[in-house]
Amino acid sequence: MPPGTVLRGKWNGKRYRLERLLGLGANGQVYLATCGSRTCALKIGKETEDLQAEANVLASLDQRERSRPPFLLDVDDAEWQGKKLPFYAMQYVPGSPVKAYLRLHGSQWFGVIGYRLLERLSELHEAGWVFGDVKSDNVLVSGYGRVALVDYGGATAIGRGVRQFTEIYDRGYWAAGSRTADPAYDVFAVAVLWIHALDGKRLLQLTRTLLPQNRHPRELVELIRTNPTLRPMETWLDRALYGRFQHAREASEHWRALVHAAAQPKDASDGHVPGWMAGLLAASVVLCGSAAAIWFLH
């Protein structure tokens, strides 16, 4: 829909002016919108049932996390050019996809972002949901490595079949497990996210050349072992790809411990620290200036 389009909710009566398109998903479009003086993100769906399922996830998270402002702002229908448009309004989350953020700010934010992403997924899992469609475009990063998940179209109740996923992030695609929603499904996708973000060219080449019967986590582990940026996190990535974390909280604690351990020189004569680890230490000094931004005290 063109910028400037105004939609009025049929039931709640709120008016939304569409400012620009933010993104296209498998089951709808997301626009930056204004409602009075407030800016929000408005998702317009294709099917009422799918959109309502997403809104239910956001509502359950708002109910659980009452210490923060609500993420879900409104759920309604509108009419435009004779068509019924189901929609919901949510907080607008500024930020860049993971890959874009790392290109702009450097791989020194790898450790910070990874920890915060796993913590956010832990909160979702503890509320009974799996995100399902973890990928770079659905993980937005803003100042000081703050992380937000967007597009809950794949969010699925634990124990059910994952509703929406992206093929190369899917453990079923890599013969690493089922598509049943469990915490390990999201943790597997986080591991692939880092391979995609930091060694995307070789990952995509691998997907083009491997026969389906040869897809296996060992192929991903080989990429990790031959990438100097990923290698310090090999033990974590290996466990994630083989489903050896029971839950995301365990994965986040292991990630944090491994980052701290890898940032220390092995002995007095070895002053070498991987580039992104050295950057992480420098970033930590900056973050100490603001208590709210100290990632390891999250």
Strand adjacency order, main sheet: 1-2-3-4-6-5
Number of beta-strand segments: 11
Helix/strand structural class: alpha+beta
The unreliable regions are 284-298
CATH homologous superfamily caption of the largest domain: Transferase(Phosphotransferase) domain 1
Span between N and C termini?
40 Å
CATH class label of the largest domain: Mainly Alpha
CATH topology of the largest domain: Transferase(Phosphotransferase), domain 1
How many strands, which pairing sense, and closed or not: the largest β-sheet? 6 strands, antiparallel
Helix proportion range = 25-40%
Mean pLDDT over the residues? 89
CATH architecture heading of the largest domain = Orthogonal Bundle
| Beta-strand percentage range | 15-25%
Count of helices? Answer: 8
Shape annotation: globular
CA radius of gyration: 20 Å
Features:
298 residues, alpha+beta, Phosphorylase Kinase, domain 1, Transferase(Phosphotransferase), domain 1, 2 domains, six-stranded antiparallel sheet, 38% helix, globular, transferase, ATP-binding, nucleotide-binding
Describe the fold and architecture.
This protein has helices at 48-64, 98-105, 110-126, 183-209, 217-225, 234-241, 248-262, 275-287, and strands spanning 6-8, 15-25, 28-35, 38-45, 72-80, 83-91, 96-97, 129-130, 139-142, 146-149, 156-157. It has 298 residues and is an alpha+beta fold. β2 and β3 form a beta hairpin. α5 runs antiparallel to α6 (234-241). Belongs to the protein kinase superfamily. STE Ser/Thr protein kinase family. STE20 subfamily. GO terms for molecular function: ATP binding; protein serine/threonine kinase activity. Residues 16-298 form the Protein kinase domain.
